[in-house]
């Protein structure tokens, strides 16, 4: 069972290049969380507890807008969510609701701290990988924002240059 879980983690960008023994160490401490369909893993504004790696099922990532739940994207087996909680320790920026019955691995800041104590190099690699993943998502969000501004026809944000 742990071999399959290690393989699942190694296919993820956040755990790319992380050795089997370091992943085994993390998995030994990480609880398995089961969330029934239509229930929440967490809600926007909740305190951060850790990140989740989806082993089974599908989730919807959403934000609230004018009293309505707006789905931003769906994730499935092998995807992770909540990793910002491991980096900035800020309130949850979105809600995550199970679409199907879900099983996930939960990794907490305490889990990662124990890895830091055991193997600083592997800890640093995970932190760098998380930083890369968050940057990738930020680039995507910047592109979406840029496209929305350009399509809106509002040229107040365009900086005029002399030609």
Task: Give an overview of the whole structure.
The relative contact order is 0.19. It contains 5 helices and 8 strands. Helix 1 crosses helix 2 and helix 2 packs across helix 4. The strands form 2 sheets. It has a 4-stranded antiparallel sheet with strand order 1-8-3-6. The chain starts with a helix and ends in an 11-residue tail after the last helix. The chain has one domain: Jelly Rolls, CATH 2.60.120. It is globular and about 55 Å long. By secondary structure, the protein is α+β, with helices and mostly antiparallel strands.
A few lines on this structure:
With 163 residues, the protein is of the alpha+beta class. The protein has helices at residues 2-10, 20-29, 84-88, 109-118, 120-152; strands at 32-35, 40-42, 51-56, 58-65, 68-76, 80-81, 95-98, 102-107.
């Amino acid at each position: 069972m742990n071999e399959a879980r290690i393989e699942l983690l190694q296919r993820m960008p956040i755990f790319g290049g992380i050795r089997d023994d370091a992943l085994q160490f993390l998995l030994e401490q990480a609880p398995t969380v089961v969330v029934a369909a239509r229930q929440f893993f967490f809600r926007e504004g909740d305190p951060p507890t850790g990140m989740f790696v989806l082993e089974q099922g599908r989730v919807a990532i959403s934000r609230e807008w004018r009293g309505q739940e707006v789905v931003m994207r769906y994730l499935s087996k092998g995807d992770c969510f909540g990793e910002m909680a491991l980096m900035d320790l800020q309130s949850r920026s979105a809600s995550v609701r199970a679409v199907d019955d879900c099983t996930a691995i939960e990794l907490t800041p305490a889990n990662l701290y124990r890895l830091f104590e055991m193997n600083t190099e592997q800890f640093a690699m995970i932190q760098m990988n998380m930083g890369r993943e968050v940057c990738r998502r930020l680039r995507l969000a910047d592109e979406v924002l840029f496209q929305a501004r350009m399509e809106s026809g509002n040229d107040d944000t365009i900086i005029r240059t002399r030609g």
